[in-house]
Specification:
heterodimer, A: about 425 residues, mainly beta, Hypothetical Protein Tm1070, Chain: A, 2 domains, six-stranded antiparallel beta sheet, five-stranded antiparallel beta sheet, 24 strands, B: about 400 residues
Chain lengths: ~425, ~400
């Protein structure tokens, strides 16, 4: 009898262990750029007069879905001067709510927002007019056609930063539902030969952070806990342990070395087959009709929207060229960082290292591995954008790319939401 | 009694573990290294300045890897003279017949090595970064194996190289089709190592315009332990993680501007081209994978529409031509749908009559065309949902 009681007790304990862990996800959650997720991060959002951004977000579920969104302004404190430790990013946030009916897609232009107008109709006739800046007015026509997702505000002038949207329930608490997907389209709005081509577009998928399938409303807190190892969570901040996937251990990008030629431009008839060499010698060299550069944009996974404290991250870069040679370098940023990797002359953004240039590495193509350095508070999310320049005709074109992600960080990243914006029932 | 007790214990603990265990995902992915990489859209038209730059990298820092790659030429040809056609109007009295013809080749990538090449040119000989091996003891001596170095008294190690690599140009110009690379061992037998990543840059360059659009190659991860030799032929993809490789997705999701929508920033006209390729391919007998695609379209009013269209092997199509040749009447046109953007869910359904029922992979190209001037475009990867309930197969020659 005593043994039976012990057996029952221990069996019950094992069952409780199982029950207790039911709140853990049945399927491993990941950070992803191609599956629906609970948190969407658009690392690179620009509305600075030379470029603008269209945001697309879709509810991929059959239920009404709410999201709480934050713009983080990463523009330097003193505009017109290079960002850096003496000119840190503003890091101010503005937030707003959106809601999407089942399977509803929506969009807005970052510079103008999407202003609420309950009388929005479908596009009129077949004219399908959409004039920028008319959102919320009777002239909006196609710009606002569809159920408004809420009142999406315009951003501050010269905005360069991030957008994060978190799936929430009607009370404002985290919804733990992997139902959001999104894309950002970056578009040049002016033409400056060699820098911008009005209408040029590049597009990337929002980075999704998936949650577990937590059913318990007890998990509502102001702090969202990202990470793979529950032991690293502060129990006072993350009493329920891991709620979202941990950020990647490493990002991998294949990209051209800065200053490398665009091989397609080089083969055009307007590019002569031989030119005088830069050293002025008697030999002839391949003509330099094009140049490619790569911009990296990173945001930290840990973000405190309550205190707006800057999260400083040191990034470690390992660069591999085509000749199996490896180089390393590092840099740091706070809140939001955007770097022209090889910092070509005339760059408007800070660079990282001449290691990324074709002339230094002797290679046109690179594989770059990016990780947060040991001692850095957490991980990062990243996207790159290549700029291809036809130097003969002064033409430019850009394309954005998502990277490959490796592993899941073994330390906690925390996203802290101001209490008054969290769940009403906490 | 003791047995009963242990049985109870075992059951309870097993139940607890089963309930608590997080399952690994079994999906294809364009954001993680894989054993197979698929580039759904490769285009070349050098007369009009169109070419594709293909990037491919070995993410393994410790091992040289070998790949077996296949270009799938999806050009259609006139029955009358064999010329390349888009439809029968250019074929005179002949017909314009679609085709999917493969050309295969091998690549060796050293540790952590990225390479790139133009589809119109390929990459071979001295253009390779490391065209031949050299002896560690004397880098002026070329080698194929360590024995060559030993015989030349140059040590016993031949340093890794791209020796054995000869990437041909695509088989036609103009060309449209797919590239697929499979990680193998030195004997070109597939191995279960997820070391590959890749990107395609669709580049259009003329004296008056430059346009660049890029997407990530879609990776299909192997399921067995790294390095396991896969002796199956055909290779089995899914279902889920039950095959040699993860299964193809159940549904693809595309967030799109409806065709002929006006760009809300520039006012340019937006169109989207969708490229779909079959997961199943018999590259030995040139049997095309096929599916009937169910398209489920939602606009911003939560209004739902659907249509369907068959795909054999490869399909590149403007969205508004999926359901009708008259774009203004399409459920993918902004005039008909009444909102700028939509969500399109793409669900491949295997036809029982198909010789090789197949799942699908794809990418989208969004073009913004100004009133005057050439289109400016962006490419992006589609989202994936779930894994097909049936396996796909790739039969190697």
């Amino acid at each position: 009898m005593r043994r039976q009681r012990g057996l029952v007790g221990l069996t019950g304990l094992a069952a409780l262990v199982g029950w207790g862990l039911v709140t853990q996800p049945a399927v491993a959650q990941v950070v992803t750029t191609e599956q629906s997720a609970s948190i969407l991060v658009f690392p690179k959002v620009i509305a600075d007069g030379s470029r603008d951004t269209i945001i697309q977000i879709t509810n991929t579920s059959n239920n009404m879905q709410y999201a709480h969104c934050f713009y983080v302004d990463g523009a330097p404190t003193t505009p017109g001067y290079p960002p850096g430790s003496l000119n840190e990013p503003l890091c101010t946030e503005i937030d707003f709510d959106i809601w999407l009916t089942r399977q509803q897609p929506t969009h807005w232009v970052v510079s103008t927002g999407r202003l609420y107008n309950p009388s929005d109709l479908a596009c009129s006739g077949t004219t399908t007019t959409c004039v920028k800046g008319t959102s919320g007015s009777p002239a909006a026509d196609c710009c606002d056609a569809g159920f408004d997702p809420g009142h999406v505000p315009p951003v501050a002038p010269d905005f360069t930063g991030e957008l994060m949207c978190i799936a929430v329930d009607p009370s404002g608490g985290p919804a733990f539902a992997n139902v959001l997907k999104g894309e950002a389209t970056l578009e040049d709005v002016i033409t400056v030969p060699g820098l911008f081509t009005a209408g040029d577009v590049s597009k990337y998928n929002a980075i999704g952070i998936q949650s577990g399938e937590y059913a318990s409303e007890a998990a509502y807190t102001d702090v969202l806990c990202l990470g793979s190892n529950a032991a690293t969570f502060d129990p006072t901040l993350c009493p329920y342990g891991k709620e979202y996937a941990g950020c990647p251990v490493e990002w991998r990008f294949d990209h051209p070395a800065t200053g490398a030629p665009d091989p397609v431009v080089q083969q055009q008839t307007f590019c002569p087959s031989t030119c005088a060499c830069p050293d002025g010698g008697p030999d002839t060299c391949k003509c330099n009709c094009s140049s490619v550069s790569t911009n990296l944009t990173v945001v930290p996974c840990t973000q405190n929207f309550e205190t707006q404290a800057l999260t400083a991250v040191t990034l470690r870069f390992e660069v591999l060229n085509e000749f199996e040679q490896a180089f390393t370098t590092s840099t740091s940023f706070a809140c939001w960082g955007s770097f022209d990797l090889g910092a070509p002359s005339g760059s408007l953004l800070p660079g990282i290292s001449p290691w990324f240039t074709a002339s230094v590495l002797g290679s046109d193509t690179l594989q770059t591995r990016i990780s947060s350095a040991t001692g850095t508070p957490g991980g990062v999310l990243a996207v790159i954008e290549e700029t291809h320049e036809d130097t003969v005709n002064s033409l430019t074109a850009r394309s954005a790319q998502n990277g490959d992600m490796i592993g899941e960080l073994n330390v906690a990243d925390l996203v802290t939401i101001p209490p008054e914006q969290g769940a009403v029932n906490q | 009694m003791g047995q009963v007790r242990w049985a109870g214990w075992t059951m309870a603990i097993a139940t607890a573990l089963v309930i608590s265990g997080a399952q690994a995902r079994a999906d294809v992915a364009s954001d993680r290294p894989a054993a197979i990489v698929v580039y759904p859209k490769i285009v070349v038209d050098t007369v009009n300045g169109v070419d594709t730059v293909i990037r491919l990298a070995n993410t393994n820092l410790n091992n040289l890897i070998d790949l077996h790659c296949f270009y799938i030429d999806a050009n259609s040809h006139c029955t009358s003279d064999g010329s390349i056609c888009k439809d029968a109007t250019t074929c005179g009295s002949g017909q314009c017949l679609p085709s999917c013809v493969e050309t295969d080749f091998d690549i060796a990538l050293t540790q952590g090595q990225p390479i790139e090449w133009k589809a119109s040119d390929g990459l071979a000989g001295s253009d390779l970064p490391l065209p031949y091996g050299v002896c560690q003891g004397n880098p002026f001596i070329h080698c194929g194996t360590g024995n060559d170095c030993a015989q030349a008294n140059a040590g016993a190690t031949c340093l890794p190289s791209n020796s054995g690599t000869r990437i041909p140009p695509v088989s036609e110009d103009p060309f449209q089709g797919e590239l697929k690379c499979i990680e193998t061992n030195a004997d070109y037998v597939p191995v279960a190592s997820n070391d590959l990543k890749g990107e395609a840059i669709l580049d259009t360059s003329t004296a008056t315009g430059l346009d660049v659009a890029s997407y990530n190659a879609i990776g299909i991860q192997a399921t067995a332990a790294a390095g396991t030799v896969i002796t199956d032929n055909p290779l089995v993809l899914g279902p889920g993680s039950a095959g040699d490789y993860n299964g193809c997705p159940n549904v693809l999701i595309l967030d799109n501007f409806f065709d002929q929508a006006k760009d809300p920033i520039s006012g340019d006209q937006i169109t989207t081209d969708l490229t779909l390729v079959a997961c199943s391919e018999d590259l030995s007998r040139q049997v095309e994978g096929s599916a009937t695609v169910q398209y489920l379209v939602y606009n911003e009013f939560e209004e739902r529409y659907s249509t369907s269209k068959a795909v054999n092997c490869f399909q590149e199509i403007q969205l508004c031509n999926i359901d009708t040749p008259q774009c203004s009447r399409s459920i993918f046109s902004v005039g008909a749908m009444g909102t700028l953007t939509g969500q399109t869910r793409i669900n491949p359904v295997a036809s029982p009559a198909a010789a090789l029922p197949s799942g699908l992979l794809g990418v989208a190209i969004e073009s913004h065309t100004p009133v005057s001037g050439s289109p400016l475009s962006a490419a992006f990867n589609l989202h994936f949902v779930g894994s097909r309930g049936t396996a796909d197969t790739i039969t190697l020659p």
